[in-house]
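Quick start: read one record
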Amino acid sequence: MAIVWAGFAAGFAIAGCHSAPTLTAQQAQGKHLYQVRCAHCHEDNDLALKKVPPDLHHVFDRATLPSGIPATDLAVRNNVLTGKGMMPSFSGRFTEDQMAALLAYLHTGLR
């Protein structure tokens, strides 16, 4: 019995008690889209922009977006498709399914 308990305890320690939930297929697609179309500005700022774009981690946990408008799917969708400030328009670059996937991933807090 002690050997079984030790094996269970070791397995639990390896797995960890705070592992992140697995992303759904839609969220995983959104993560990929975020990484290839958004992160270079919103995370890496590898374009050497003079004004750093807003951090999108936990964007839907806040009541408002950095611009002050309510943090809703519609507001984020509009910002992405029409652009805002220095952010260019991404109109025509996302299908409806891709936009839904991006929003689903943003709702995870970017995990």
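DSSP finds five helices and no strands in the chain.
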